[in-house]
Design goal:
The protein is 14% helix and 42% strand. By secondary structure, the protein is mainly beta. It has a three-stranded antiparallel β-sheet with strand order 1-2-3, with helices on one face. A three-stranded antiparallel β-sheet has the order 4-6-5. Strand 5 and strand 6 form a beta hairpin. The two termini are 18 Å apart.
Length: 104
């Protein structure tokens, strides 16, 4: 890691995500991290974000990990995909962020 993945529609990049060793300096004990999820606004509403999350979970499982983490300020999005809120972390600017865990 790190690994970056893109989703294509033909030759157009319409989404992507990253798997990182670390995404929060305040939580170096947790890894790997799911980060940078993005789906082009024109393609939203088609569960592509969910497909990218599933892809990440399969990649992590293939690498022998049994958990995956993310940090976000979103609420209610990741919970729909069975992520569990496990507490707060702190970004580089000392802003709080929410930490989620997915058990593979």
């Amino acid at each position: 890691m790190p690994r970056f993945y893109v989703m294509l529609d033909g030759d157009r990049i319409i989404g992507g995500y990253a798997l990182l060793r670390s995404d929060l300096n305040s939580r170096q004990d947790l890894f790997p991290w799911f980060a940078c999820l993005h789906v082009d606004p024109e393609y939203r509403g088609q569960n592509l974000g969910g497909q990218l999350q599933t892809h990440a979970m399969n990649e992590v499982k293939a690498k022998g990990y049994d958990k995956l983490y993310l940090c976000t300020d979103l609420t209610d999005y990741y919970e729909k995909n069975n992520w569990a809120y496990i507490g707060k972390g702190y970004l580089l600017d000392d802003e709080e962020t929410r930490i989620y865990e997915y058990k593979i």
